[in-house]
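Proteins fold reproducibly. Take a sample protein:
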Amino acid sequence: MSELDKEKIEIKEAKPELIAGDIPATSNSLANAKQSGNTKKNKSNKKSTKQTKIGIPAILALIIICSIINLFFSAQFRELHSSIIVAITKNLGVVDPRYNESLVDLAKAYIRNNKIDQAEKIYQQMLIALPEKNNIPDSHLWDLQLAIANFYYDKDDFQKAALSYGDALNMLNKTPTQYLDRKYTGLWPLAYSEKEIKQFDKAADHFKEAIVIEEKINPKNLGGLAWIYFQLGDVYRQQNKFAEAISTLKHSLELGGDERGYTLISLGKAYLGSGNFAESENAFRQAIAIQQKKWPNDSTVLFTRHKLANAYRDSGHLQDAIKEYQEILNIWKVFDFGTDYDLYDDYAKALMMMHEPEMAQGVLEEGKKNRANAKANGYLK
């Protein structure tokens, strides 16, 4: 397993989930976002106004009937109900919050069934039909675009997620002092998505912006703030800005939260990159202690011990490094789901530094054999 694969495992574990529209690290964000927007009404000529007035009673009756069907029958009837509303709205030229909500319901039904293209078509139709008025974004448009972005985020399609979150936030750019709850709701997953696609400068800017907003609207959410500081510090680390990374990650640890293990790993890497081997070893040992309590028999602990062994090796503590490598390798051998293939290379490097070329060659050969077996069994590409 490559270093990149291990990074992905760590990132995946630290990634917050978007469940049923709930937004981690802030309270009431999505609820406020759904309620805080202003809806639009079309201006129509006298002829169209007359037509609309004539048809409204029948329209409302049909909506009520379809709503009753929607309560008692399957998702197919829900789509049918929303489709009828779409047709009525299109034919009469009516732009009304009740109809917009039905459009969003239909689009979300498509999203739940992985029909994202259909959902995006509805979004584009609403975007044309509901131009901004007085620079106030339509709440239904925001809600739908956020749902589309969340779909891509949950699928780990961070390239499309970043674009979709960006589109959602662009609706709020003309009102920078308003809708802070909405803005935060889109900012942190945008920053995370940008981090995943290696757009580190953008990610850092958006994490910092999210911190400013969260400290203003929800300062008691220390766990949420700790997570954002951890992500920002990890971005700095990957940019080799080790001083900024260390100070930011240490602040995250001061705030607390549930990501202390991952924060300590990133801190250990930052110290290692800066050449502070003693602090690096200390951070990795603390991370291992946390992980062993949380996942006593999990491979996550072994990956962190591997990092500690590398810190021992790079600091010149070769005996400690070799002991750690050997213990990790012995544990991996009892697992039936693969191994840490980079471990062999790092172990061999330490043996070479100890002037043990024959032992190093033996370790490399064992690693080569295990990699070949893993590829033959489909564990490695």
Observations:
- Residues 19-54, 71-75, 91-98 have pLDDT under 50 and may be disordered.
- DSSP finds 18 helices and no strands in the chain.
- Residues 46-72 form the longest helix (27 residues).
- The CA atoms of residues 77 and 90 lie 20 Å apart.
